[in-house]
Write a structure and sequence with these properties.
Elements lengths: L1 H27 L15 E3 L6 E7 L9 E6 L7 H5 L4 E2 L11 E2 L20 E8 L3 E4 L14 E7 L22
Parallel strand pairs: 2-8
Antiparallel strand pairs: 1-3, 2-3, 4-5, 6-7, 6-8
Length: 183
């Protein structure tokens, strides 16, 4: 009887190990969606908000000659990551962090420079995430974009910090005008 109980326990352990391995592989290879894909209404205008909304600023940094992108998500309610969808800005996360960690914004950096399979190395450069309010100016966000509720009258900023570039003191260049929102 004891050998049968041991066989059952051993079989259960083996099954758990196999199931864990399959689940791990599926998550790493994006076979299983790790977040719910909330549909966000696309309603934006070019430039900083002139009426209640959230401004998004994309600063490509010193690594390219691309001009910054400023768009306003009008009457937006959602998190910092969802602002991308609301303003029709193309963003890609990594396989490890498909939502919340920006690896590529508007096809920058190009896939020939970063494959976005894993988190980019310091030598490859990466996107920094910032928040702007009239009271504090640009500040590095203390949480990831998918965890932060974007506030009406503020700006969400993304700055590409080039390969090997020191990030201390770097801030998105455009200083957006912000609009006061009724409470």
């Amino acid at each position: 009887m004891r050998s049968r109980a041991r066989l059952i326990v051993l079989s259960a352990l083996i099954l758990l190990v196999v199931a864990g391995s399959v689940l791990s592989w599926a998550l790493e290879n994006n076979v299983i969606e790790t977040t719910s894909a909330k549909q966000v209404e696309v309603s934006y205008s070019e430039g900083a908000c002139e009426k209640p909304g959230v401004t998004i600023v994309i600063d490509f940094g010193d690594s390219t000659e691309r001009d910054p992108i400023l768009r306003c998500a009008s009457d937006f309610v959602g998190n910092g990551w969802e602002v991308f969808q609301a303003t029709a800005i193309d963003v890609s996360g990594t396989n490890q962090y498909p939502v919340g960690f920006a690896c590529r914004i508007e096809n920058f950096p190009p896939s020939s420079e970063q494959n976005c399979i894993d988190t980019p190395k310091y030598s490859e450069g990466s996107w920094g995430y910032f928040v702007f309010t009239k009271e504090s100016g640009w500040q590095v966000s203390q949480v990831g974009s998918a965890s932060r509720d974007a506030q009406c009258g503020s700006a969400e900023g993304w700055l590409f910090i080039g390969p090997g570039q020191q990030d201390a003191g770097l801030l998105p260049r455009p200083i957006p005008e912000t609009v006061a929102c009724d409470g």
